[in-house]
Amino acid sequence: MPDLLASYVAGNWYTAPDEGAVVLDAATGDAVARVSTTDLDTRAMVDHARRVGGPALRRLTFQERAAALRELATALDANKAAYHELSLATGATRRDSTGDIDGGIGTTFVFSSRAKRELPDGYLLADGDVEPIGKGGAFVGQHVYTSLPGVALQVNAFNFPVWGMLEKLAPAVLAGVPTIVKPATQTAYLTAAVMRDIIASGALPEGAVQFVCGGAGDLLDHLGGEDVIAFTGSASTAAVLRGNAAVTTRAARFNAETDSLNCSILGPDAVAGTPEFDLYVKEIVREITTKAGQRCTCIRRALVPASVVDDVIAGVSARLDKVVVGNPRNDTVTMGALVSLHQRNEVRNAVAALQRAAKVVYGDPTSVELVDADAEHGAFMAPVLLLCADNERSEPNEVEAFGPVTTLIPYSAPDDVGVLAARGRGSLVGSIVSYDPDFVGAMVSSAAPHHGRLLILDRDCAAESTGHGTPMPQLVHGGPGRAGGGEELGGMRAVRHFLQRTALQGSPAVIARLVGGS
Description:
518 residues; alpha/beta
């Protein structure tokens, strides 16, 4: 029987009194850990965060918090080999885990460095210029940011157990707000390993971070207007949380980053044989095989000119033929498992729903050739490419197969593409692959209102491009509509999510003294 994972509560590690639920290795089906939050004192967690963690963080200046964050990132970087080894149980390949583990630690370093350059060595952050109000200049206004006195609750998805935690924790620490981390149960063992090192490092003051390993219980019952809820996951779960009284009645801040039907647009100029065509094909294959397609930024809809559909299918198929699916512990494997057998069944059901409007042109959702694994115990699935010849059908714009699946949707005229992109009802990211500046300009104008981020990919930037699906700490991550309507990352913008904006009014001398001595 594997160990029962502990939660970190009010300065102590807490282990539930029951046996808990067993979490299985995604590739082998072996038991990895047990999780339970039976009898967890959530009230004590919130009180500890407010009375101990918050005051301790707020005694540090912005610069001191940035230094603490760098110390934390350095400690985690020294231990990352152990995280990589444990991550294999999630079904991720070593390459997949680099985006999660190294990406999370790297994001923490970036936030620390940006804060050192951009934030004051004080406790108050000025926003904008002084606003003259009185006619004689003796009365002015100034917007400022100060730390919220509450707690940040982060509720994370299963696909990025390290990055998902750190990219929310870093700006909260800089803002001086303590955090309670609630990871997804299926990969909580990896988050727990990182959390133990966070606590052991001593980089953050006691109470700055706590950890719930299992169900959240009644945590939201204790949150209100001074608190922040930061959620990553499905749109349906986000809707449930957004409807909780903590948000609707007590006005806790709520930020959601949810799954979306992201699109990638191939320009009419990018015909077979051009660099842009090759980049497009490569990007689709990379997106649906990285993390076995389990990324909220994955390309779900590939919008291509009708005249090149066959060429795109041939190009994608040729690359997918080289993908090796199996146990990520085997070095020859290039695509691992989905996170669980349940998730695999969910994806298969979604593909069946898509097949009402589209046909499978590559792969078999029910059968896969494996290396060093078996399909009965491991949550494996072959990459699947579908073609929806009728771009008026609604299914590709409504059904998300959260796995190694994408649907080709042809368009006849460039004017149609913006309408097709918008049918996703709001997305985290879209990409435009073209070397035609007029087409790119038209697409940005029509697609930008429906996306949080747009990648413009061509031969000139390809060598340095971070790709369609990779959020960067310097840029906003989030999107409108179905994507959740929230924002994460974006440099120091993310820190402001955990701060209170207040308008100060008074004499220029008083305002200058307050802001200058922040």
